[in-house]
Design brief:
Elements (H helix, E strand, L loop, with lengths): L2 H14 L4 H16 L8 H8 L3 H9 L5 E7 L5 E7 L1 H13 L19 H5 L7 E6 L9 H11 L3 H11 L12 H8 L1 H14 L2 E5 L2 E6 L3 H13 L11 E4 L5 E2 L2 E2 L8 H17 L1 H8 L3 H18 L4 H12 L3
Antiparallel strand pairs: 1-2, 3-5, 3-6, 4-5, 7-8
Helix pairs in contact: 1-2, 4-8, 7-8, 12-13, 14-15
Length: 339
């Protein structure tokens, strides 16, 4: 939609509604940069209500009492601890998805961000670190909770939205004044928030001939590098964003050890870890030998949960190596059990 088209239609409706010429002018001045950026024009809560298809009172309640619009649960991490997550209820989630699709996705993010971006995936993150002298993996501590609502509101302000609308959108995307891990908007907002960090670190890495990518809260650097110097630089730059490294998860891997980046081995060739592959092979073997029902009884699991989880693990292996004949056969066999 061009601004000229918007102006013509807006002016006609505004005059019918009794707007003064001064108010019409102010609205058009506000709207023009948003339209030129391909963004939806949002003047007030009622306007947002019409765009997302929810009543104005509902949106106000979701912004003021956000915590009531989430369910809390935990998932098991690899270290045996549990990660707390907050999932928005379907109504708020639908509003957040609208914000993501219509506003946030119009903002380009760094090429070094490999997670939560369309047409980028895990393989894009690891392929840059294959066959390197040293691989360093770093984890940002409490990543999403450390990104505060004020920083999110600033993102909307910089797009051209008013302070009131930026405040409203920030509240709808945050819970307890920070990004909730579990909301559909949080991952992409984190990429936007980290844009300048990407730029600073990429400039440093280009000078030092270091490969660099970030996947969610994981930072990977590789090459012929001094780990102490590189880690110190990253640690210092993160402070500007009120972020800190998880010191317990810092890993420095030379070529003499198995170099793993986001669960993928990158030493000589990119592949899933042997124990991961062996586990899949073992599970398929037991199903073939004892039958699915007997196998499920032995491991005390339900069919739906187990089978789909196993297919997910096989798909992960095929994402890394799409031509893996064994995994292709495993997937065909397991899917056949669902028919």
């Amino acid at each position: 939609m061009t601004f000229e088209y918007f102006e013509q239609n807006f002016r006609k409706k505004a005059i019918q509604s009794g707007f003064s010429e001064d108010n019409i002018h102010k609205c058009l001045v506000y709207a023009e940069p948003l339209i030129n950026k391909g963004l939806p024009v949002i003047f007030n809560t009622a306007n947002l209500s019409a765009l997302v298809g929810y009543k104005k009172n509902f949106i106000k309640k979701a912004a003021l009492y956000t915590d009531y619009f989430y369910r809390n649960f935990t998932i098991l991490k690899k270290n045996g601890k549990r990660r707390p997550l907050k999932e928005p209820l379907p109504s708020l989630k639908e509003i957040q998805c609208w914000i993501l699709e219509n506003i946030l996705y119009t903002i380009p993010v760094s090429k070094y961000a490999k997670a939560y971006v369309k047409k980028r995936n895990l393989l894009d993150n690891v392929k840059y670190h294959k066959d390197k002298e040293i691989v360093i993996t770093l984890d940002i501590k409490d990543f999403f909770p450390s990104i505060k609502r004020g920083s999110i509101e600033k993102i909307f302000l910089e797009l051209g939205y008013s302070s009131n609308i930026s405040n409203l959108l920030g509240k709808l995307c945050c819970c307890n004044d920070h990004l909730p891990q579990g909301a559909p908007t949080s991952p992409y907002l984190s990429n936007i928030y980290m844009r300048n960090f990407y730029l600073t670190l990429s400039n440093y890495c280009n000078v030092e001939n270091v490969r660099y990518t970030r996947y969610a809260d994981d930072i990977t650097l590789s090459g012929k590098i001094d780990p102490i110097v590189v880690i110190a630089f990253v640690r210092k730059e993160l402070l500007a964003y009120s972020l800190f490294l998880n010191e317990e998860k810092i890993k420095v891997m030379g070529k003499n050890v198995r170099q793993i980046v986001t669960g993928i081995v990158v030493n000589d060739k990119i592949q899933i870890p042997k124990n991961y592959r062996d586990k899949i092979r073992q599970e398929v073997y037991f199903i073939k030998k004892f039958g699915l029902a007997n196998h499920l009884q032995k491991i005390n699991s339900s069919q739906a949960n187990y089978v789909y989880h196993l297919i997910g693990k096989i798909n992960f292996a095929l994402q890394i190596n799409p031509l893996d004949k064994d995994m292709i056969d495993y997937r065909k066999f397991i899917k056949g059990l669902l028919n």
